[in-house]
């Protein structure tokens, strides 16, 4: 039996921006025959077209929180689908501004929306999804995505996507031995005080969290425009051995490993990033 792919494509990696050529946080995870988007930021639809994914192929959307740069592309996604095609959307209870923005859309488009809690979990095709409580300036959740079928060549593969957050014990616990941790790194360590004030994370904090959780590989995203990706990479590599800093449309493939290879270790990830210009020690 051929091993099914388990990968993540970065359709937007920027922190909040009004620049239309700098797409904001959006990921597409594919596990087997299932495709799930995590957040739908500015420019998400254009990036879907660039990788030749039909919006009809999206099985579900997971929202981390209701800041505009994480859901601004949702109307375009819904309008591009057939009116008879139901799309499941899971996320925190929308903020007042989000409800105002989305009310008409939610009533006119064929969607199923469920407000999630910190104990939410669900099977979605070939992927199991579950929430992780996070700490931001509004209610927010990270998401763990786990393949539902064990590959013949190794154990079950898992990804945790933090969304916008401070580093927390809840993320450490949920990320224990995940193959790939996708963690926000809005600031470099020299601006740790700003990260704390705005309830974001630094590169150093994300790398230290990856060690505590003993993850296989770390991908840094949501980096502020004032920094280069290379500067983030260099800071993280001083702490964690397998670091990736994805650019727009980069895709990370996760290969299976037996559970015994993961126990008590970190930096064991068997990952490969395509289309990238900057990678860590992979």
Structure overview:
The protein contains eight helices and 15 strands. It is of the alpha/beta class and 282 residues long. It has a single domain, classed as 4-Layer Sandwich (Metallo-beta-lactamase, Chain A), CATH 3.60.15.10. The strands form two sheets. It has an eight-stranded mixed β-sheet. A seven-stranded mixed β-sheet has the order 7-8-9-10-11-12-13. β7 and β8 form a beta hairpin. The protein is globular, with a radius of gyration of 17 Å. The chain starts with 5 loop residues before the first strand and ends in an 8-residue tail after the last strand.
Task: Name some characteristics of this structure.
8 helices, alpha/beta, Metallo-beta-lactamase, Chain A, 282 residues, eight-stranded mixed sheet
């Amino acid at each position: 039996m051929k091993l099914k792919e388990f990968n993540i494509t970065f359709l937007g990696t920027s922190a909040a921006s009004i620049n239309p050529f700098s797409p904001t946080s959006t990921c597409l995870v594919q596990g087997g025959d299932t495709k799930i988007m995590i957040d739908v930021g500015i420019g998400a639809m254009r990036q879907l077209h660039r990788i030749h994914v039909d919006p009809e192929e999206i099985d579900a959307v997971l929202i981390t929180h209701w800041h505009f740069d994480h859901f601004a592309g949702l109307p375009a996604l819904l309008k591009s689908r057939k009116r008879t095609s139901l799309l499941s959307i899971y996320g925190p209870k929308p903020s007042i501004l989000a409800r105002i923005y989305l009310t008409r859309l939610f009533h006119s488009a064929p969607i199923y929306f469920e407000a999630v809690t910190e104990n939410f979990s669900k099977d979605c095709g070939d992927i199991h999804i579950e929430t992780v409580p996070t700490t931001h300036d509004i209610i927010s959740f990270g998401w763990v995505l786990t393949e539902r079928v064990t590959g013949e060549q190794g154990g079950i593969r898992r990804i945790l996507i933090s969304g916008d957050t401070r580093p927390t014990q809840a993320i450490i616990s949920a990320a224990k031995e995940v193959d790939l941790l996708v963690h926000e790194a809005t600031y470099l360590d020299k601006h740790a005080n700003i990260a704390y004030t705005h309830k974001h994370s630094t590169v150093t904090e994300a790398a230290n969290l990856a060690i505590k959780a003993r993850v296989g590989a770390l991908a840094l995203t949501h980096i502020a425009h004032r920094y280069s990706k290379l500067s983030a990479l260099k800071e993280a590599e001083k702490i964690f051995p397998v670091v990736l800093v994805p650019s727009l449309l980069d895709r990370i493939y996760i290969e299976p490993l037996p559970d015994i290879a993961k126990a008590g270790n970190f930096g064991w990830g068997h990952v490969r990033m395509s289309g990238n210009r900057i990678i860590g020690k992979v």
